[in-house]
Structure formats: structure tokens, C-alpha cells
Amino acid sequence: MRKGIYILPNLFTAGSLFAGFYCMVSTLNGDYRTAALWILASSIFDGLDGKVARLTKTASKFGVEFDSLADVVSFGAAPGLLMYAWALKPFGRVGWLAGFLFLVCAALRLARFNVQVDTVESKRFVGLPTPAAASMASATVLLFYHMGWPASYAKPAVLALIYFLALLMVSNVRYYSFKDPSLIKRQPFAFLVFAVFLLIVIAAEPVLMLFTIFIGYIFSGPIGFILTWPRRRRLEKAMRKGHEELGRKNSQG
Length: 253
What we know:
Elements: H1 7-28, H2 32-55, H3 61-88, H4 93-116, E1 124-126, H5 130-147, H6 155-169, E2 174-176, H7 189-204, H8 206-227, H9 229-252
Antiparallel strand pairs: 1-2
């Protein structure tokens, strides 16, 4: 701290924190659609701060800690309060407990990420990332407004969604991190065509497409976990057998 801090990446983190705080302000004012949009803005700032830090080689321990604290507000407290005020309040204790569970699971997810950042594969996240969980909640609110559905529509489904997202954040389900260096290297021409087509579809129906993309990402983890279960079981059995054989050899020696 005596040597100073890097301004640029931390400004993006502060922007993410501001967006999360303003989401809570909009929620308290009853403007839930605006609150949901500010969560999406916060996720954009959160994605940029790390990339800016890496590109400018200004990553620091202070920036990592500041980013985690900002994420607790923007992707834990803000969406938890939004979903409670928008749809979960009629459930009473079960409703506000869902909002609190979302917050505490987000904090636990961030704490686990900080202690595992040097020991896990960079291409995969362990547990649902907090920005994705918060963005899924905001996309749900925007979908209701886009469709003209009242907040009372399908409230049990919204409650189940919040519990589901909270549990995914602290699970061992792995999610693609989009940090693969090969993504920025040369790609086939068809990849560019697909990307342009995807942008056109998103521009045509942004709310529907954002909801579809987020829910697809949410379920990609559990689906991948189920599909790779037999292979993981075989690997665990092979490792257990190898450890047993090694133990027998050591005991005989």
C-alpha cells in the first residue's frame, strides 16, 4: 500500500461495485427492471477488470481482494435483495432465507476461489461463478418484464431457481471459464460466421437470447458432470487401486 495501487483495473472494480450498489438503490425504489440491468452492467465491469489487469500487467493482491469484496456486494447482496423484493417476499421466512442463502453461497464461492486459484485448472471454474448466477437472476426479471408477466407469475419456480443457483455456486460442478488462450488464436472461418450470426440473433431478441445463453450455461455444468461421471468413477477406482498396491509394496518392503 505504501508503494501505491494500480488505478485502471481497480477503477473497473469500483465501477462494478457502484453498479451493484445502484442495483440495490433501484430495488428499494421499486424499479426492478433497472435493478436487473445494473447487475448485468456490474458483470461487464467485473469481466473487464481482470482482463485489463492481465493486459496491462497490473495484477496485484490488493486488486484480487478488492474484486472479491466488490463481488460479494454486486453478485451476492444485490441480486439477493432484488429477488426477495421482486418475487420472494410473499413466501415470508422461506423467501428471505432464499435471498440470504444466495448471498452466503456467493461469499463462500468467492472465498473458495481465492484459496484454490493456484491449484485448480484455469480453464474450469469449480462451482457456478457468482457473476453468472447473478446474471441469471437478473435475466429472469428482464424476461418477466419482456413477456409482460406479473411478478406473481410462477413464483415457486423463481424460489426454486434461487435455491438451485445458490447450491450450484458451492458445488463441485465444473464450468468453462472462457480463459482458454486458444480462443484468441486463429480460428476457422466458420467460427467467425457463427459469431456474427449469434450477435445478430442477440441484437434481434436481446432479452430472450440473454436468458437462453445464461440458462444454457447454468445447465452446462450439471449436464457435463453427469456425462463424465462414469469416466471419473473409473479414474477414481484406478487411483484407489494404485494407492492400495503402493501401500502393499511399502508394507512388504
